[in-house]
Amino acid sequence: MDNLMIGYLSLLGIGVAIYAGVHVAIALAGISFLGIWALTGQAALGFNFVALAGTESIAAYTFGVVPLFVLMGLAVSESGLGRDTFAIIARSMRDWRGGLGVATVLSNAVFAAITGISIASAAVFSKVAVPQMVNAGTKRSIAVGTVAGSSVLGMLIPPSLLLILFAILTDSSVGDLFLGGVGPGVLMALMFGLYLTFLGRFRPHLFEGPTTMGGADDTTPRVLMLPILGLAALVLGGIYTGFFTPTEAGAVGAAAALILAFAMRRIGPREAWRIAVQTGHITAAVCFLIVGASIYSRMLAFSGVPASVTQWAIASGIGALGFLFLFSLIVALLGTILDSSSIMLVTVPLAFPITQQLGIDVVHFGLVTVIAVEIGLLTPPLGLSVFVVQAALRSEGVALGEVFRGAAPFALIMVGVLCAVILIPQIATGLVGL
């Protein structure tokens, strides 16, 4: 059996294992190890591949950005700064029909500039924004759909854990990817806001009355916005000006977030310990996935599968645009059965060499990948953001189907933004190199 056949059989085996419910990291590492063994005929060499992947992939300086940004995001989430942000923005939009929905989108955008995790946004704003919207007269399916839909901004607007993961998988610049995320993130937030404004104007029955509650009373101090805006300016400004590397920015941001949380008396030693433990759990899970993906990438390269697929893509005449649309469709379909990180770990090592041969900019490809992956957060049966919102509001009688229905228009908007980014690369690459 030749190397290519072994490589393709390994891909098939990984797909079957994942579909059967095997953890993605185990499927990637286990079957890739067997593939290397079959390719070389030496089990010892397979173990060496595993050992190298386990050390080189997560021992790199760049990987330090993962736990640091996770720590910063959890500290911000625990300190209640997301609640403060929503309260102030909602107050300023109290007379805008559908304004609380737009305030939720804007709050998610601001919150995303600190946390970088969609699930954190979904969990926070389910408890904060949905009750305010429903009490102000917004139909509940619109309220829960808005929270689920706008939560995806957490993985698009930098700092984004998915963009960091993409940078690790492709050995590309985290800073450039962060810059690339600004344009698509702002565009998506704008489109979400326009959609809700359109509903408020032309379907007013979905918002039974003016949003007089506003999410905050007259005594809510606007100065509460300063900590989260200052933290975002410190971290992202430091990266974009070149004053910090992304890893250093993560360290500075994590330290600043903890200092703010303690200074505002939002957390104590017990909460700080819980944040540290959660950071460890998330980082360990990401490490396990990256090690599996590293073994998988080495096996693919050794088998010659990426080169074979690249030759097919070039010979087919599909072109860069055709490839990006096809890749996005595959990724979006995988989003119905896999979580975001797992999709990237399976698809990016195989697709990235093809994009290099087709002349696709790495930042452009990275943002297309992240947007396509994020669509899966809102689509059944495994729409993770939808499940988080439903779980947070289960005691209020919110059903899963209700959240999926409310989030469906946001998923369609994401498809439109994805097409725009594919067709107009400058949306993602315009800020890079300025």
Automatic annotation (TrEMBL):
Annotated GO MF terms: transmembrane transporter activity
Mode of membrane association: Multi-pass membrane protein
Gene Ontology cellular-component annotations: plasma membrane
Keywords: Cell inner membrane, Cell membrane, Membrane, Transmembrane, Transmembrane helix, Transport
Annotated localization: Cell inner membrane
Taxonomy, superkingdom: Bacteria
Cell membrane among keywords: yes
UniProt keyword Membrane, yes or no: yes
Pfam families: DctM
Transmembrane segments: 6-37, 49-76, 109-130, 142-169, 181-202, 223-243, 249-268, 280-300, 312-335, 342-359, 365-389, 410-428
Family the entry assigns: Belongs to the TRAP transporter large permease family.
Quaternary structure (record): The complex comprises the extracytoplasmic solute receptor protein and the two transmembrane proteins.
Protein's recorded name: TRAP transporter large permease protein
Annotated organism of origin: Salinihabitans flavidus
